[in-house]
């Protein structure tokens, strides 16, 4: 199977992911390297907003690969994940064939010809899983929020990720000529099957410590004053310590930083925090709790 070297070492992964805008810690860089070297899917689990999806996008940017994304949701089925037939186009072909055939033949040969004609690649609608394993170019397959799917979809994923092939009854088996770099993300809304986990390398991402988050924020928003960056991260850490409906994500820390730059705020005092809290807390009850707990001026 034609492969490619995604990263030559954990240090190479750190450097190239960094160049792509993703500051990876040692565990993340090592696991990303191994996922490429061993051609094993990478399951990344952790709370919302810690950079799971961004890791997959950054691997694609770092490697110059295309990203194919399967966004999971409750009710996702094989037709949306793998493939389906273009029924309306098939129907038009059948109608055209019937209009053009005077004699269908006693053996139904005309219908057989039509049947064979409409079950070809021309009428196949490929969905993300089939698209990713059909591509000959370097591809990152992102299976996002896999914990939101039904257990049945896990069975489909197991089949595809075990052999990197898909059997289409009317066409035959499609086998990957170049295995994609597969990243599955999960917010741990439900426990994934042991069978799926067994086929994957596992990485748990959590909120970074204050110093690393400051590095991430200043890398993304370099025009932010360093003192303000420290105040921002310190405040975000305090907010995450509260019992909120939705703790601030790293992306929201970055949004807050951009907000402060846009407003030309040079010091993150209580008034500034209160005025810009909507950048990091998106529930009214969370904002009210933050104002109360952090003793901000409402």
Description:
The chain is of the alpha/beta class and 298 residues long. It is built from 14 helices and nine strands. The protein has a five-stranded parallel beta sheet, with helices on both faces. β6 (165-168) and β7 (172-175) form a beta hairpin. The protein starts with 9 loop residues before the first helix and ends in a 5-residue tail after the last helix. Mean pLDDT is 88; it is low at 102-108.
What descriptive keywords fit this protein?
298 residues; alpha/beta; 5-stranded parallel sheet; 14 helices; elongated
What is the strand and helix layout of this fold?
Blueprint: H1 10-19, H2 26-38, E1 42-45, H3 52-63, E2 66-71, H4 78-81, E3 83-85, H5 87-100, H6 109-118, E4 124-126, H7 128-134, E5 139-144, H8 151-163, E6 165-168, E7 172-175, E8 181-186, H9 194-198, E9 201-204, H10 210-220, H11 226-240, H12 250-262, H13 270-276, H14 284-293
Parallel strand pairs: 1-8, 1-9, 2-5, 5-8
Antiparallel strand pairs: 3-4, 6-7
Order of helices and strands: HHEHEHEHHEHEHEEEHEHHHHH
Measured as a percent range, the helix fraction is 40-55%
SSE class: alpha/beta
What is the averaged pLDDT score?
88
**Runs with pLDDT <50, length 5+?**
102-108
Counting DSSP H or I runs of 4 or more residues, the number of helices is: 14
Distance between the termini: 62 Å
- Which percent band covers the strand fraction? 5-15%
The beta-strand count equals 9
Rg over C-alpha atoms, rounded to the nearest angstrom? 25 Å
Strand order within the widest beta sheet: 2-5-8-1-9
How is the main sheet built?
Answer: 5 strands, parallel
**In one word, what is the shape?**
elongated
């Amino acid at each position: 199977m034609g492969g490619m070297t995604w990263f030559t070492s954990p240090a190479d992964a750190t450097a190239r992911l960094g160049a792509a805008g993703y500051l990876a810690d040692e565990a993340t860089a090592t696991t990303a390297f191994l996922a490429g070297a061993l051609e094993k899917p990478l399951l990344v689990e952790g709370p919302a907003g810690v950079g799971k999806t961004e890791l997959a996008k950054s691997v694609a940017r770092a490697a110059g690969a295309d990203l194919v994304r399967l966004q999971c949701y409750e009710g996702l089925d094989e037709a949306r994940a793998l493939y389906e037939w273009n029924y309306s186009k098939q129907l038009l072909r059948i109608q055209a064939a019937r209009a053009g055939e005077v004699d269908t033949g006693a053996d139904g040969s005309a219908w057989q010809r039509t049947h064979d004609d409409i079950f070809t690649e021309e009428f196949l609608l490929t969905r993300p899983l089939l698209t990713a394993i059909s591509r000959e170019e370097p591809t990152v397959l992102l299976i996002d929020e896999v914990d939101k799917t039904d257990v049945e979809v896990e069975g489909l994923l197991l089949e595809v990720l075990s052999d990197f092939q898909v059997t289409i009854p009317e066409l035959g088996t499609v086998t990957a000529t170049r295995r994609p770099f597969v990243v599955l993300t999960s917010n741990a809304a439900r426990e994934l099957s042991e069978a799926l986990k067994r086929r994957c390398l596992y990485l748990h991402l959590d909120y970074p410590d204050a110093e690393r988050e400051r590095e991430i924020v200043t890398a993304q928003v370099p025009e932010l004053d360093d003192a303000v960056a420290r105040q921002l991260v310190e405040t975000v850490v305090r907010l995450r310590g509260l019992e909120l409906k939705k703790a601030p994500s790293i992306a929201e820390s970055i949004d807050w930083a951009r907000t402060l730059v846009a407003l030309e705020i040079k010091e993150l005092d209580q008034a500034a925090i209160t005025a810009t809290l909507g950048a990091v807390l998106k529930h009214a009850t969370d904002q009210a709790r933050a104002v109360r707990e952090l003793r901000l001026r409402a």
